[in-house]
Amino acid sequence: MKKPGAWSFSSIKLYELCPRKYEAEKITKEVVFTDTEATLYGKELHTAAEEYVRDDKPLLPKFSHIQSYLDSLKRFPGDKHCELKMGLKKEDGKLVACDFFDKDVWFRGIADLIIINDSTGWVLDYKTGKSSRYADIKQLALMAACMFAKFPQLEKVKAMLWFIVPNDRIQSVYTRDEAFTIFSDLHGILAQREMSYETGVFNPKPNGLCGKWCEALSCEHNGRNR
After folding, report:
1. Taking the CB of residue 156, how many other CB atoms lie within 10 A of it?
2. Which of 11, 112, 148, 185 has the most CB atoms at less than 10 Å from its CB?
3. Distance (Å, rounded) from C-alpha 97 to C-alpha 151?
4. Average pLDDT, integer, range 93-111
5. pTM check: above 0.85
6. In terms of C-beta density within 10 A (0-12 exposed, 13-18 middle, 19 or more buried), how is residue 17 classed?
7. What's the CA gap between 173 and 166, in Å, rounded?
8. Residue-wise over 105-131: b if at least 16 C-beta within 10 A, else e?
9. In the chain, what are the domains?
């Protein structure tokens, strides 16, 4: 088995959901990602928001419902970075900022919008799901950690998940002192992932998706084989 490479919030969430599904998608490539109507809409909205904030490119009529909020973001003081790719690597026992494609990158993350104003930063992630019920703020903590590493002047990061359909906003605030505690919180699942790579064993974790939604057809729990 190859060594574990850089990870992201989405990849560790996939491993946590089911190591076997992770193996099928990330290693054996048994499962090839195919866009759905929902993922295509999400990509289109993210691109529209990025180009509107960064380039003043007019929004399509179907995205007019987000214009007023995007306008408020554009008026907000500070340096704006759209779709900012960030990386962290281990150096002398510490996590430091690096290029997204650095050969030693350990963690990768992409922020939909970052605003830097003196010692305070803001990070926003657009969500196109229909509900915020299962919102996971670990994503915000990871983005905040990357920001503290990349922008040494920051003392505070205000982070938000914006669920556009229900117009729900999940917010959290981070200080530099607590910037990297998220990695302690994730140590257990990261260690399990590393062990899976070392042993070549990615045990299945049966869940509600097995019956008819999972594409990992080689798994003994996949209901589509029955």
Report:
1. 14
2. 148
3. 9
4. 97
5. yes
6. middle
7. 22
8. bbbbbbbbbbbbeeeebbbbbbbbbee
9. 9-225 (3.90.320)
**Of residues 9, 119, 110, 120, the one with CA closest to residue 50:** 110
- The structure tokens listed for 155 are 């003392």
The three-point CA angle 111-209-12 to 5° equals 35
Query: How far apart are alpha carbons 47 and 75 in whole angstroms?
Result: 19
Predicted local distance difference test score (pLDDT) of residue 209: 86
Per the CB < 8 A criterion, the answer to whether 198 and 183 are in contact is no
Q: Say what the pLDDT of residue 1 is.
A: 58
Closest by Cα among 166, 160, 145 to 72: 160
Find the helix or strand (DSSP H, E) in which 117 lies.
Answer: strand 107-117
Q: Let me know the angle formed at the C-alpha of 137 by 134 and 140, rounded to the nearest 5 degrees.
A: 140
